Amino acid sequence: MMLLTLAQRELRTLFVSPMAWSILAITQLILAFIFLALVEGYIVNQPQLMMLENVPGVTERIIAPLYGAAAWIFMMVVPLLTMRIISEERRNHSLTLLLSAPLSMTEIIIGKFLGLMLFLLLMTSLLSLMPLSLLLAGHLDFGHFVSILIALLLLIACFSAVGLYLSTLTTQPTVAAIGTYGALLLLWIIDIGSNSVANIEASGLLSYLSMLRHFDALARGVFSSVDIVYFILFVTVFLVLSIRRLDADRLQH
Amino acid sequence: MNDTSLVSVQHLSRHYGSLTAVADVSFELAQGEVLGFLGPNGAGKSTTMQIITGNLAPSIGHIRICGIDLLEHPKLAKAEIGYLPEQPPLYRDLSVDEYLRFCAHLNRISRDKIASAVTQAKQRCGLEAVGNRLINNLSKGYQQRVGIAQAIIHSPSVIVLDEPTVGLDPIQIREIRSLIRELGKEHGVILSTHILPEVQMTCDRVQIISNGRLVFSDHIANLNQQMDSTSLRLGLQHPPPENQLLAIEGVTEVEKLDDGRLRIHHARGNNPASQLAEQAVTHGWGMLELSPEHKTLEHIFVEITTSEEVDELAGVK
Fold first, then answer.
1. Res B289: pLDDT
2. Residue-wise over B15-34: b if at least 16 C-beta within 10 A, else e?
3. Domain segments of chain A as ranges
4. Residues A85-95 pLDDT 10s
5. pLDDT at B316
6. How buried is residue B206: exposed, middle or buried, by Cβ count under 10 Å (0-12/13-18/19+)?
7. How far is CA B16 from the centre of its chain?
8. A13, A102, A252 member nearest B78 (Cβ)
């Protein structure tokens, strides 16, 4: 109940500023462009693809790359959305309102996270309308499609949790945004050197930490609980850190 | 400890590293009481208020709100408090109505009572006319009122106001003061300010905090008694010798002032004004002025806070 109130508030803040609208419009435009390019490519290459032994389907050739591109775009967009969540409230002194209300720190953080996720869910559902439009002309591998969708949503949840945490650390939204970009990029490419690292254990750890690995596995349609657990743990850790950080304000020494 | 007290603070201390912001402060607030918190800048008023409202954790000490321990059951205790911090916690991109509705939700007012709670809060703070306007476009005074409306929307038992009349025009100040008096009838109000007459006008009890310590705590009624005049200012064209004045009943001391006038000290409740006037007429002293001198709260405040500092300095040496 209280979570919904807070989530609704967060969502409203987004929509009263031009920020949410412009982000929705621009990402939608770019993704639509990518989608069209992929469809075009598929149609052009269809004769050659038919010759292959294991004919790749629409889901594999269009949806997977589309959502892969979306993942990159979300990585650029989410920090812009998360940067102001706590830092701006600190700046405007409105955080006191939440801290003095009969709410726990957990409710504040989860409520805000939920509000943000609702917005990102809206973005993802708009994106999903594109592949669904292909149903007019053919059929999709729904199992694979849902797996890709879940992968993208889990990935976005991770981005948001990291962004939220960095937003609790500072009163400057831009600092929060830059920090989030840094953290996300690092986690994205952390396994870049894992092939050249001599120590096998270390390289295993690095590639396990990489968000890209887990996202790719799910996006390929390999639905493994390890990847799901990775994402859930990731989100939980950063939400708990945010709650602790907010509580530390009260305890500051 | 008193069972009926709304707020009970015991041995409260707050340290920031080596800096002590609040040291061993204890006080109580009863139902229907307006408690004024006075102190120079940086004395620890705001810190104390932040601690009472759960925005800051105390280093040592206990706080009970309506008998509920703030640290053990923060949610229950916070539901009984309305707090207006120094900077009103407003969402500037909302309209007054939207903002107050959100505050009502936050304070768990049931859905069917929200509309009436919002209307009542607006009416009490004189915000009826601006309900649809964006908070950002309101003047400072109106924003302050929205802040107060936010603090009283759930009619909490305890209302904590940190410098509520800052930035208001004189008429608004009067309105807010009468609002505070009115609130003080049903709720307990803690008010911090550095405007001394405000305390005299609105509070039942005054506490002066200096360097993080509570140095004075008394009822306004007692204070007013203390402030009753014990001296007269006397202006004479042909002043007589001092002993002639001292001979008048009630006069304890005569002091020459720089401007040629005299200050006549007298015992409390034994005012020699009428005798002075009689004598002045019969002896032809040529009286120009005779007026009682009031000791103001400012005197007491300055006395207490500066003597405190002197003590501190002496202690350091």
1. 84
2. eeeeebbbbebebbbeeebb
3. 2-251
4. 999 898 888 99
5. 44
6. buried
7. 26
8. A102
Q: What is the pLDDT of residue B218?
A: 82
What residue ranges in chain B does DSSP mark as E strands?
5-16, 19-30, 34-38, 60-65, 68-69, 81-84, 158-162, 188-193, 205-210, 213-219, 231-236, 251-256, 262-266, 287-293
**What contacts 24+ positions apart, CB below 8 Å, involve A36-45?**
A38/A62, A38/A65, A38/A66, A39/A134
Structure-token pair, residue B61? 């000490």
Chain A neighbors of B17, CB-CB under 8 A:
253
Rounded Cα gap, residues B277 and B43, in angstroms:
46
Structure tokens at A10: 């967060």
Q: Measured between beta carbons, which residues in chain B are less than 8 angstroms from residue A94?
A: 89-91
- Is the torsion defined by CA of A94, A99, A102, A103 positive or negative? positive
Beta bridge partners of A62: none
Picking from A9, A13, A99, A251 by the largest number of B CB atoms within 10 A of its own CB, the best residue to mutate is: A99
Angstroms from A101 CA to nearest CA on chain B: 6
Q: What is the DSSP letter of B162?
A: E
Q: Determine contact, residues A97/B150, Cβ cutoff 8 Å.
A: yes
Q: A92–B91: do the CB atoms touch at under 8 Å?
A: yes
Task: Kindly report, residue by residue over A6-52, the tens digit of the pLDDT.
Answer: 999 999 888 888 888 999 999 999 999 999 999 998 888 888 877 77
Is A104 in Cβ contact with B106 (below 8 Å)?
no
Non-local (6+) Cβ contacts of A41 within 8 A are A61
Write down the ipTM of this complex: 0.85
Distances (CA, A) of A229 to A203, A217, B64: 20, 13, 43
Which two three-digit tokens encode residue A228? 């799901």
B68 touches chain A (CB under 8 A): no
pLDDT in tens, B73-120: 999 999 999 999 989 999 988 999 999 999 999 999 998 999 999 999
Rounded to whole angstroms, the Cα distance separating B30 from B32 reads 6
Ordered strands of the B81-84 beta sheet: B81-84, B158-162, B188-193, B34-38, B205-210, B213-219
What pLDDT digit, counting tens, does each position of A53-62 carry? 777 777 888 8
Query: In chain A, helix, strand, coil percent, each to 5?
Result: 85, 0, 15
Residue B171: both structure tokens together: 């008429």
Instruction: List Cα–Cα distances, B67 to B6, B64, B189, in angstroms.
Output: 7, 5, 16
The structural domains of chain B, ordered by start, are: 5-222 (3.40.50.300), 229-293 (3.30.70.100)
Cα–Cα distances in Å, from A192 out to A37, A197, A203, A230?
28, 10, 10, 19
Distance CA A46, CA A172 (A): 51
- Identify which of B57, B75, B90 has the shortest CB distance to residue A102: B75
Mean predicted confidence (pLDDT) in B37-59: 88
Confidence check: pLDDT of B55 > 70: yes
DSSP state of B109: -
Do B105 and A5 lie within an 8 Å CB cutoff? yes
d(CA B145, CA B22): 29
How many residues in total does chain B contain?
317
